[in-house]
Amino acid sequence: MRLKDKVCIVTGAASGIGKEIALAYAREGGKVAIADLARDAAEASAAQIRAAGGSAMAVPMDVTSEAQVTAGVAAVVKAWGGVDVLVSNAGIQIVHPLEEFPFAEWKKLLAIHLDGAFLATRACLPHMYGSGRGGSILYMGSVHSKEASPLKAPYVTAKHGLIGLAKVVAKEGARHGVRANVICPGFVRTPLVEKQIPEQAKALGISEQEVIRNVMLRETVDGEFTTTADVAELALFFVSFPSSALTGQSLVVSHGWYMQ
Ligand code: NAD
Questions:
Q1: What pLDDT, on the 0 to 100 scale, is given for residue 58?
Q2: What is the DSSP letter of 13?
C-alpha cells in the first residue's frame, strides 16, 4: 500500500494512461479523483475502482477552464480534506503540417496541455503547502518532450514546455516538500494513438501498418508499444519515492525510442 490514504487527483483519468494510473493508485490505497471532461466515462472509472474496494470520485472538469479546475479541486478537498498527489495528464493530439496548421487548433492543444497543467498545479499547490505534508506533482510529457516529429508542432511545443513548468514547481515547491517530475512515454495504444494511425497514414501517404512499423515504433529497440501498465508503474514509482532527492526530473519510458 504505497499510497495509503493519499488523496490523488488525476486529470484525463477517464481513458487510456490516466485511467490506468488511477486504477494503480487506488490499488495502492490512494483515494483517487477522476478529473475529466468525459463525465460518464469518469463516473464509470470511479465506479470500477469502488467495485474493487478502492476509494474514488468522479470530478467533471475541463482543464482549460479556470472556474472548473478551481471548483473541481475544491470539491476533492471538501470530500477528502486535502491533496497529496496531482497527475496532470489530460491531453489531445492534432496533426497537420505546420504551414497548414489552423491557429484555433494550435491554441486548443496548447490550452489543454499547458493551461491545464498550470491551472491544476495552481489549484493544488496551496493545499499541498498548507498541509505540512507536501506533495508530489507529475506531468504527462512524452518522448515529444525531448524529440520532434513532423506534423506535431503544438504537441511537441507543449510537451517540451511541461518540463520547464515541472522544474519551476520543483524549485518553488521544495521548501514546502512538494516535488514535481515528468513522465515521457513512447507510443501507447490508447484512443489518442488509435486516432492518429489513419490520420498519419493519410497525411504521409502510407499504409496504417507502415505508420505503426516505420513511423511510431521505428526507433524502438524491439518494435514494441509502451503499455499503459508501464506508464502507471513509473507513475507509482515517482509519487511514492520517499524523499525530495527525486524532483525536477523527466524520465522516458519508450522501449528505447529515445535514449538520454
Ligand atoms: P486518451 O485519449 O485515452 O485519454 C485522454 C483523456 O483526457 C480523455 O479521457 C479525455 O476525455 C481527457 N481530456 C481531453 N481533453 C480534456 C480537457 N480539456 N479537460 C479534461 N480532460 C480532458 O489519451 P492518452 O493516450 O491516455 O493520453 C493521456 C496523456 O498521455 C496525454 O497528455 C498524452 O499527450 C500523453 N501521452 C500519450 C501517449 C500515447 O502514445 N498514448 C504517449 C505520450 C504521452
A1: 98
A2: T
The position carrying cell 497527475 is 87
Q: How far apart are CA 227 and CA 254, in angstroms?
A: 9
Which pLDDT does position 162 carry in this prediction?
Answer: 99
Residue of 223, 45, 7, 32 lying closest to 127 (CA atoms) = 7
- In the chain, the amino acid numbered 146 is K
Quote the ligand 1 centre to 246 CA distance (angstroms).
25
Q: 175 C-alpha to center of ligand 1: Å?
A: 31
192, part of any domain: no
**Residue reference for cell 493530439:** 93
Q: Grid coordinates standing for 43?
A: 463516473
**Mutation to probe ligand 1, out of 9, 10, 11, 15 (largest number of atoms < 8 A from CB):** 15
The segments of the chain whose pLDDT lies below 70 read none
Q: What is the CATH number of the domain that holds 39?
A: 3.40.50.720
Statement: the pTM of the whole predicted model exceeds 0.90? yes
**What per-residue confidence (pLDDT) applies to 260?**
83
pLDDT at res. 203: 86
87: which strand partners? 10, 138
Q: What range defines the domain where residue 143 resides?
A: 7-186+227-253
Do 17 and 140 form a contact (C-beta atoms < 8 A)? yes
Domain count, the chain: 1
- What pLDDT score was predicted for residue 238? 98
